[in-house]
Write a structure and sequence with these properties.
Order of helices and strands: EEEHEEHHEEHHHEEH
Radius of gyration: 49 Å
Strand content: 5-15%
Largest sheet: 3 strands, antiparallel
Shape: rod-shaped
Number of helices: 7
Distance between the termini: 146 Å
Length: 222
Amino acid sequence: MPGGVGGYGSFYLDGRMQTSHRAAYQLEVGEIPKGLVVDHLCRVRNCVRPSHLEPVTPAENNRRGRVWESGAAAQRAKTHCPYGHPYSGENLRICKDGKRSCRACNRRYSNESRARKKALSPPQPRPQRTICKKGHEYAAVGRTTGGGCKECAREALRRSRARAKAKLPPKPVDTHCRRGHKWNQENAYVSPGGLKACRACHRDKSREWYRARAAERRALAA
């Protein structure tokens, strides 16, 4: 029964399918050595002439047929990936070895791989921490909006303000009050809250207030 696979002739012999060129070589020349294949010297696949057949290794058979060139040409002739995505535009990716790759398929492969890994080892819930890295208890100091330690945030703010203050030029020494009275032990008054006041200014303001009240009383009496 004649037939053909990949351009080679084939038929049934002794109850099983055999290729024509191998059967012709075995009938006319002899057994094919183990590990070798029959190569067509004429490069015609359906040829069965024994003088055109030679047993060679598979590597030598591929070298003679230059199968890598035909395979590369077939790859270059492809315009779409096996799933129908075009090898052009933003979907085309050139690999380091010069081969073309489909970005849509790569994204799908990555998503499927992540889904399989996630299904095999789902993420475990992290235990809730009650103490920060510096030893502050969250129950006592509280948490920030982002979930951090409020005390650590306050310390970082104080350090930031100190660095900014250190960069500022030094303030001039305050030797007089706003009205020009000199600060000394007799004229300066420090309140319990730590505020410094000028006694001379206070006396001047008091006199002005009394004079204004006296003028009002005189105006009412007149």
